[in-house]
Protein: Putative oxidoreductase C2F3.05c
Amino acid sequence: AHAVLKLNSGHTIPVVGLGVYLCEPGAQAYEAVLSALRLGYRHIDTAQVYGNESDVGRAVRDSGIPRKDIFVTSKLSIRNWGKSRAQAAIDESLKKLGLDYIDLFLLHAPGSLDTRAETWAVLESYHRQGKLRSIGVSNFGVVHLEKLAQTAQVTPAVNQIELHPFLQWPRLVQYCQSKDIIVEAYSPLAKGQKLDDPTVKQLAQKLNVTPAQLLIRWGIQKGFVSLPKSTVPARQEVNLNVFSITIPDDDMATLDGLEADFVTGWDPIRDAPV
Ligand code: A2P
Structure:
C-alpha cells in the first residue's frame, strides 16, 4: 500500500495521502490522522490555515511509526507572504508539528505577485537548510508557474490542485508533467459530490470497486498523487485500498470524457491575480 512517486528533489512521495482539510482542530483531526496511520497511510497533507498542524504532529508522534516512514506536507498561508512573515510562519509550522523537518512545504496559493518571488526564496533557503525536504506550490496556474520560473532557483516539486474526472485542467497538467512537477489532486472525490454520478456508479460496479476507489484510482493511473479526505476510518480504509485495481484503457477514456469544469470550491487558479 506504499506505492510512491519520485519528486524532482530526489525524495519519494506516497501516492495516496490523507487530506485533513475541514478536519476540526482537536480530537477530530487527531483521531483521523491516528486512524489513518494505523490503517497504513504514510502521507498526511495539512496546512497552516486548516488550524490542525499541532493535532497532526501529535498523532504522527503518538503513532509510534518512525518519523522517516511518514510523509508530512504543510502549506504557507497567503497571510504569511513576505520574507520575515514567511520565516516566522515556517518556524511556527515546524514547532506546531513538533518535527525537525517537513517533507513537503507549499505556497498555498499564488498570493500576490509583489511578494511571491521573495516568499518562494524563503522556502528555498529552508530547503537548503534541510528543514523543508521538498518545496512546491498549490493552486498555481500555468501563468503563475511561468512567472515563478523567472526568479526561482528550485523548480517546485509539486503543484497541488483540485483534480478529478469532472475537473481535469488538461493544459496545466500537461505543463507540469513536461517540467517534472508532480501533480497532486486535492478533493479527488469532488468533495463527495460526484459519487452518485451514473457513469461513475456504473463503471465502479463493473470493476467491482466503490465510486470513491474508482475516482482515486483514476488519478493514480494518470500519474497524480491523490489526497482524499475522510474522518471515518472505514472510508479511509476503502480509499487507501486502490493498489490492486486496474482501470482498463477504455474505461479510463470514459472517465476522461466526464470533464465538466466542475469546481467544488473557490477557484484560485482562475481567480488569483497573475
Ligand atoms: P467523511 O470525512 O465524512 O468521510 P474530497 O477528498 O474530494 O474533498 O472528499 C471529501 C468528502 O467525501 C468528505 O465529505 C468525506 O466525508 C467524503 N468521503 C470520503 N471518502 C468517502 C468514501 N469512501 N465514500 C463516501 N464518501 C467519502
